[in-house]
Design brief:
Helix 1 runs antiparallel to helix 2. The chain has two domains: 278 residues, no CATH class; 110 residues, no CATH class. It is 15% helix and 37% strand. Strand 6 and strand 7 form a beta hairpin. The radius of gyration is 23 Å and the shape is globular. It has 415 residues and is of the alpha+beta class. The strands form five sheets. Strands 13, 14, 15, 16, 19, 21 and 22 form a seven-stranded antiparallel sheet that branches. Strands 2-3-4-5-6-7 form a six-stranded antiparallel sheet, with no helix packed on it. A six-stranded mixed sheet has the order 18-17-20-25-24-23, covered by helices on one side.
């Protein structure tokens, strides 16, 4: 067992953090918890090379081009499409209209996707596929099947159920049942670098962090997250830097603050979207987490009153994070306004792809005019609540509000 620098069991802290993430994940995905196995049904699905030709409705659709399940809804208000999707792995984009699927080319033209028709509930099947999951749609003779069980909703989730679940999670006993491993960088994580509900522990940096394949990646970012995060006991400052690059609108976002009652942390997320999506967006400003090939080398150091809480070396990432036990001096430590989050300072170094991207990012930094605090924003009678003035100028990249450029690496600091 490893211990935090406050003597609190790291397993217990992980459990409490995961309990919070677990509740959030249920809210985002609409999960329901039943107390028994009553009402289970069994279905079968083909295995092998049939990924493009059969999609289990319980798993969602796959990309018609590469077969990846790293696919998300790209529909925007004002579009006439019935459905609109994008693949984060190969950037293939397509839509459904009148029951027919169309690929969206880079030049904006649409081409029919052959052998695919649309079925409700995000279920794509080729025209020659039957509606039964235990058939061999490709006709290649491969009839191997695997059996999965899907539970129907059971009885309502009660307060007693919630207490039992919390006691089980906070005890840390369930963590012993997980297949942990330590990677070459000293990170305690799980198979596929998914961690426990998206989080691992760095024995090198002595902090918790979001793993490379955390579940949050599937949800990207939109403004609604910042406007509601205080209701799940997360209080922070945040800055958004926007810039155009290679026909996409990019957004790099920075956070620092109090995460629940026991953790202090900071985050840097890298997101983008097509220019077409940016122009048609009239909603919550939604962005996709960048694809693997678009990740950027990012370092992250968090200070509290000039004391280093943790420092993470530069690593190619889409979401560089760190969380350590601590509080900002507020009893309970839940609702933390900017008068407390100002204790925290972040320094970072981000290496951009080339001179064009570096110049665009620097222009985005220069355009920053304010910091947003999600707790300060809770004053519903003041539309300007939550914002305070802030800007970046060229300097040493260590003093808050300054940045420096060396080649394609930009260093900056803020608090």
């Amino acid at each position: 067992m490893f211990m935090s620098n406050t003597g609190i069991s790291a397993k217990r802290i992980t459990a409490l953090l995961c309990a919070l993430v677990f509740v959030l994940s249920m809210a985002l995905t609409g999960c329901q918890i039943g107390s028994s196995d009553e009402g289970k049904t069994t279905t079968t699905k083909p295995t092998g090379n049939q990924a493009l030709e059969y999609v289990d409705p319980n798993q969602g659709l796959v990309c018609p081009k590469c077969g990846s399940s790293n696919v998300d809804d790209a529909w925007r208000e004002g579009e006439d499409y019935d459905e609109h999707y994008i693949c984060y792995d190969c950037e293939y984009e397509w839509y459904v209209l009148g029951g027919v699927a169309y690929e969206i080319k880079d030049n904006g033209q649409s081409v029919t996707i052959p052998n695919y028709t649309y079925r409700p509930n995000n279920n794509y099947r080729p025209n020659n596929n039957s509606s039964s999951g235990n058939k061999n749609p490709s006709g290649n003779g491969n009839s191997n099947t695997t059996t999965t069980t899907t539970a129907k909703p059971g009885p309502n989730f009660t307060a007693d159920d919630a207490k039992e679940l919390y006691d089980y999670i906070s005890s840390g006993k369930w963590l012993n049942e997980i297949n942990w491993y330590v990677d070459e960088e000293g990170n305690i994580t799980t198979e596929g670098d998914k961690g426990v509900l998206g989080f691992g522990y760095s024995t090198k940096d002595k902090c918790f962090y979001a793993t490379g394949n955390a579940w949050q990646r599937d949800y990207g970012y939109n403004e609604l997250y910042d406007k509601t995060s205080q209701f799940i006991a997360i209080s922070y400052d945040t800055i958004n830097v926007y810039f155009p690059y290679k026909n996409k609108e990019w957004m790099i976002q920075f956070w620092k603050g109090q995460y629940g009652m026991i953790l202090l942390g900071a985050e840097i997320g890298v997101y983008n979207r097509s220019m077409k999506a940016a122009e048609s967006d009239t909603g919550f400003n939604h962005y996709n987490a960048v694809a693997d090939k678009e990740r950027l080398p990012i370092s992250l150091t968090l200070y509290q009153n000039d004391k280093v809480l943790f420092s993470r070396a530069q690593k190619e990432n889409w979401w560089q994070t760190g969380f350590v036990p601590g509080q900002l001096g507020v009893t309970g430590g839940v609702m933390v306004g900017s008068q407390y989050t100002k204790q925290l300072k972040v320094t970072t170094a981000i290496t951009l792809d080339d001179a064009e991207m570096t110049a665009a990012f620097v222009e985005g930094l220069k355009a920053v005019t304010r910091i947003y605090n999600n707790v300060d924003a809770m004053n519903a009678n003041d539309t300007s609540a939550g914002y305070r003035s802030f800007s970046f100028t060229e300097g040493d990249g260590v003093t808050p509000g300054t940045y420096s450029v060396s080649g394609n690496t930009v260093k900056l600091a803020w608090k």
